[in-house]
Design brief:
The complex is a heterodimer of chains A (114) and B (524).
Chain A (H helix, E strand, L loop, with lengths): L6 E2 L4 E2 L1 H24 L32 H6 L1 H10 L4 H18 L4
Antiparallel strand pairs in A: 1-2
Chain B lengths: L1 H7 L1 H21 L2 H29 L2 E4 L21 E4 L1 H24 L6 H20 L3 H19 L6 H32 L4 H7 L4 H18 L7 H8 L2 H26 L5 H25 L3 H25 L4 H40 L15 H14 L6 H16 L1 H26 L15 H19 L1 H17 L1 H9 L3
Antiparallel strand pairs in B: 1-2
Chain lengths: 114, 524
């Protein structure tokens, strides 16, 4: 089973079955370590509760982070790129055709016509 | 008797079955939904069985030639033809068989998924007819050995695709998206036709093998090459000709979007077929290879970076389609750039091509799966807006599982199929140019980041009041997603089997121009 699953990449090999078995062993070890901690956890204390720098935990309905709130740091760091890339996506059909003509001109040059 | 007839005429039946299915669907629709739905299942299953039969024959005995109208369809050069193939020929080699099999699998899945997903919509007979015509167009493109015939099938797929994109006519933007798709596809088709005319004027033939044999790579051939490559690359969604793709993919019904991915890949097949089989070593393969590589790198970077910004899940996935196309262009472009150097081809060029082609079929599976999960979300929640979604993991557990499989596969996380093909691309492209491999890896990381966002936005968090009544989608939709998820997992766990069975012969068929010519002109 393990042998037939080995992918020869030309430079090395990749065996998903061995990877899966390794991951399962790692998960079992992680589960065993966690269960040892759980067994000595005194019930009814706050040790198992989430901790938010001493602030009250909000209601679950208020905790969902919307998609637009994610990766703002990345997009902010890349704002010079996005400032140019996003406006190019105008949604206007004639702009799309212009881009095609530009690429065609480049392709004609690269193909050796000119 | 029937088996023999089916086997001999498999290339023709591959087109005839879905075409018959398309035109008979409105009649079956008059009899009621159940007969029509059973008809769709029968036709897509028969098409898949025919493509599997054809692929088995190609992988065991070599390329299959089918000459339409000839007494013996297996003979391309009939006695009264003057030594040239005058009839329309289907030349199904390992590359064509691989593409046809992939298209018919996704066609079957799209058919199953569509049965319940649009049950509240009108015009279902037309929808299914167009779906089958789209399948006809794709299968014809990947099987034909005739350039004009390729154009005809390109037009069939374009027109059927445009009508399907605009299917939800209650939304004006869907019609606008369909119009954009129709216009740009027609433009690509006409550009392609003009290039065909240039070659026909010089070589007196429309047959790919004949033109490949006579190819001189003169001035007009170079013009035709530029027209072919750019027209088909635009249909494939390569940057910077990708702008139509998010507009179109986001508005089409999800089963159609999953199938449009395959339609775009059929255009990518056209790029590869033109470069390797029609022109081969006669073109300036280093320059053209780099042209394809540059398109690939731009597609990867622009696609993934634009995806991260999106708040509409289908637009986000559409940008990822562009990004994934970049991997295929990169892998096969590297193969083309070293085509004339046997040592480099042996060392890494062929592996890069195999990686690119393996990624092509992997993308059809996991990207199709992701679009279907987006459709399932829309089916129940009624929105594609990531900011309005949340907590659906509580009520749509199977859809969430399928999404996780698709998302991990597209991000190249082991043990799913995307990892195997990306690994082949990384290693071989690294040997060609390390910077390109590093860019490919960075794009994978950004892809993972993007899908973590989608997963969190749709499935994580507490249950939301507006989705309190949401439950899992109907069984046929789950079954369709399940088929693609299963293939995604199996192709990830047994990658070598898929590479040995389908990918390596397909890459070999592309590289071996002489074999393609000989299969038509004789001497094989």
């Amino acid at each position: 089973m393990a042998l037939i699953a080995t992918l020869d990449t030309g430079f090395g090999a990749w065996n998903p079955v061995i990877w899966i078995v390794t991951m399962m062993v790692a998960l079992v070890i992680a589960w065993l370590i966690r269960s040892r901690g759980e067994s000595v956890q005194p019930p009814g204390t706050e040790a198992g509760k989430p901790y938010l720098s001493g602030n009250d935990i909000p209601y679950p309905e208020e905790t969902h982070v919307a998609a637009s709130n994610l990766y703002w740091g990345f997009t902010d760091a890349m704002k010079r790129y996005y400032g140019r890339a996003v406006p190019l996506h105008t949604g206007i059909l004639t702009d799309y055709v212009l881009w095609y003509i530009g690429v065609l001109a480049l392709a004609i040059i690269m193909a050796g016509v000119l | 008797m029937i088996g023999e007839f089916w086997s001999i005429n498999a290339p023709a039946l591959l087109i005839a079955i879905p075409m018959l299915g398309a035109f008979a669907t409105p009649l079956l629709g008059k009899m009621g939904k159940t007969p029509r739905n059973l008809w769709i299942l029968l036709i897509t299953a028969l098409t898949f069985a025919t493509s599997a039969l054809l692929a088995a024959e190609v992988y065991t005995t070599g390329p299959v030639i089918y000459t339409f109208g000839a007494v013996d369809p297996a003979v391309a050069l009939v006695s009264d033809s003057g030594g040239i193939p005058v009839r329309i020929i289907f030349n199904v080699d390992a590359m064509s068989a691989f593409m046809a099999l992939m298209a018919s699998v996704v066609g079957l899945v799209a058919g199953i998924y569509s049965l319940p997903s649009g049950k509240m919509k009108s015009g279902r007979d037309g929808y299914f007819s167009l779906l089958l015509l789209l399948l006809v167009g794709i299968l014809g493109m990947v099987c034909t050995g005739d350039l004009f015939n390729f154009f005809v099938f390109l037009e069939i797929s374009s027109l059927a695709g445009a009508a399907l994109v605009a299917y939800r006519i209650d939304k004006g933007v869907a019609v606008e998206a369909g119009l954009k798709y129709a216009f740009l596809s027609s433009l690509a088709g006409l550009i392609f036709l003009y290039a065909v005319a240039l070659l026909y004027g010089q070589y007196d033939s429309l047959n790919i093998a004949v033109i490949a044999e006579r190819m001189q790579f003169g001035f007009l051939d170079k013009v035709a090459l530029a027209l072919f490559l750019t027209g088909l690359a635009m249909k494939a969604g390569a940057v910077p000709m990708h702008f139509w793709m998010p507009d179109t993919y986001s508005m089409a019904p999800s089963a159609i979007t999953a199938f449009l991915v395959v339609s775009s890949q059929a255009s990518l097949y056209g790029v590869f077929r033109i470069a390797f089989t029609l022109y081969g070593l006669r073109l300036n393969y280093v320059t053209v290879g780099w042209f394809i590589i540059i398109l690939g790198v731009l597609s990867m970077l622009v696609g993934v970076s634009m995806a991260i910004l999106q708040e509409n899940v289908k637009r986000l996935m559409a940008y990822h389609s562009i990004s994934q196309t970049g991997y295929m262009l990169l892998g096969v472009g590297v193969g083309l750039a070293v085509l004339g150097d046997p040592a480099m081809m042996e060392s890494f060029g062929l592996t890069a091509m195999e990686g690119g082609l393996f990624h092509l079929v992997n993308n059809a599976m996991y990207k199709g799966l992701l679009f279907l999960t987006a459709g399932a979300i829309f089916f129940r929640a009624g929105t594609h807006n990531l900011n309005k979604l949340g907590g659906l993991g509580h009520s749509m557990k199977l859809t969430m599982l399928f999404f996780i499989i698709g998302a991990l596969a597209i991000a190249g996380i082991p043990p799913f199929n995307g990892f195997s093909s990306k690994l082949m691309i990384y290693e071989s492209v690294f040997a060609f140019n390390p910077l390109l491999a590093i860019i490919a890896m960075v794009v994978s990381i950004l892809t993972l980041a993007s899908f973590v966002k989608v997963f969190h936005a749709i499935f994580m968090g507490p249950k939301r009041g507006e989705y309190a009544g949401v439950n899992e989608v109907p069984v046929p939709m789950l079954a369709a997603m399940g088929i693609l998820a299963l293939l995604t997992v199996l192709m990830g766990i047994f990658p070598q089997q898929f590479v040995d069975l389908m990918i390596r012969p397909a890459a070999g068929a592309l590289v071996n121009q002489g074999s393609y010519i000989a299969s038509v002109m004789g001497g094989l």
